[in-house]
Each structure stands twice: as structure tokens, then as C-alpha cells.
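hiii so um. not sure if this is the right channel but i have a protein structure encoded as C-alpha cells and i wanna go backwards to a sequence. like what aa goes where. can anyone help
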């Protein structure tokens, strides 16, 4: 019979009563009488803590990875063609971009990174996102129509980190779910990426929802 007793620290002590008939006579723990007693000290507590920690670590890793790749309902990403779709339209990103889904509070957010990681194009989709491409503070603003859906593009200078400025280049599709695609860069040539995204736009119907008061060109 085995009985476990906690003796403090991180060790379990087990006491075993062993019937002498089960011994072969040469075992050193069988000493006279009908039974012998041995104390086996094993550090079960440490082992148990280790194995409890392993599933938690694995779960954390899985959650972190799913956060990077999971696409929200109504959105899809085709890496082969670099096509991003949402419920009201689709655009194309540069081939080779990697897609990451971010956690938005009341809008759908995410970003695409270039192969070298130097360029990041972000998106913010939903009525509460507002219009990133607007007249306000813009050095350049354009509007055009694609199959009846408005497309706004704009540039404006913004503070960049602590020691410089960058240009926010954005395209907003106000009639297509108030979808915004934008980047911040100190390199003027990067603006061509957003221009390309704007030109690739294909709407799915026209969604001029009056309940999007924040998605206005003058805000």
C-alpha cells in the first residue's frame, strides 16, 4: 500500500508497506518482520507545475498566431492574387504582401506588409472609422466615381514620431462601407501604392448609408 504525505517544500514523500512474500530476499529494502518501510522522495510538485505550464504556453501561442491570420466575417484575403475583399468591394495590394488582421474596437482593422517589412498599408473599415481621405488639412484631395461609387484620395502631412514629419496618403470608399486604406511614409514615392489600390477598386453595389455621419469628406 502507498500513502502520500506532504512534507513541505516542493517534494512529495510516499510511504510504502511491502509484504515480505513479494520480496526475493535479496532486496535491500526487505528487512525482517512481515513488512518493510521505504520513503521515496520525488519532486512531483515541480513536475506538475511544469506540465500545467506547457498547455498554457501552447494555448497562448495558438491565440497569438490566430490573431495574426484570422479574417473577420465579411472579409477575405487571396494571397496569390493579393486581392482583399470586404462586403462592399475589393482592392488589390502589391504582390507579395503579407496580411495581418488586427483587433478593432468598433471597426474592422488590419494591415499588409511588404516583403522587406519596410512598407505597411493599413485598413480601417466601418461607419465609425471616419474618412481618412478628407478635405481637412489635405494638401491634395481628389474624387472620382467607379460604377457609381465615390473614391476619395488625399494627402496630408502629419507629425512622425518625435523628430520629423510624414505624409498620410489615404483612399476612402465612402459608399462602400466607409472603407479606408492608408499608409504613413516620409518617402513621397510610397504614395503610388495607395494610388494603385484606389485604381484597383471594384465596388459591390453602392452603399450610401446616411447613418455614417463620420464618413464625410469635410470632416
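sure thing!! here u go:
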Amino acid at each position: 500500500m502507498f500513502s502520500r504525505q506532504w512534507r513541505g517544500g516542493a517534494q512529495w514523500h510516499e510511504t510504502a508497506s511491502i509484504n515480505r512474500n513479494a520480496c526475493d530476499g535479496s532486496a535491500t529494502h526487505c528487512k525482517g518482520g512481515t513488512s518493510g518501510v521505504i520513503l521515496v522522495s520525488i519532486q512531483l510538485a515541480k513536475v506538475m507545475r511544469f506540465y500545467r505550464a506547457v498547455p498554457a504556453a501552447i494555448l497562448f501561442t495558438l491565440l497569438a498566431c490566430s490573431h495574426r491570420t484570422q479574417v473577420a466575417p465579411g472579409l477575405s484575403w487571396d494571397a496569390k492574387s493579393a486581392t482583399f475583399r470586404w462586403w462592399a468591394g475589393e482592392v488589390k495590394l502589391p504582390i507579395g504582401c503579407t496580411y495581418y488582421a488586427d483587433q478593432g474596437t468598433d471597426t474592422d482593422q488590419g494591415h499588409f506588409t511588404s516583403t522587406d517589412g519596410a512598407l505597411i498599408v493599413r485598413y480601417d473599415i466601418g461607419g465609425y472609422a471616419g474618412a481618412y481621405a478628407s478635405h481637412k488639412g489635405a494638401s491634395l484631395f481628389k474624387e472620382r466615381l467607379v460604377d457609381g461609387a465615390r473614391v476619395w484620395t488625399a494627402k496630408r502631412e502629419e507629425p512622425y514620431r518625435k523628430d520629423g514629419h510624414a505624409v498620410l496618403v489615404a483612399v476612402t470608399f465612402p459608399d462602400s462601407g466607409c472603407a479606408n486604406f492608408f499608409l504613413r511614409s516620409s518617402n513621397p514615392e510610397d504614395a503610388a501604392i495607395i494610388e494603385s489600390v484606389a485604381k484597383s477598386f471594384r465596388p459591390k453595389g453602392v452603399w450610401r448609408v446616411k447613418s455614417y455621419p463620420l464618413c464625410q469628406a469635410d470632416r
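oh and The helical segments are 44-69, 191-199.
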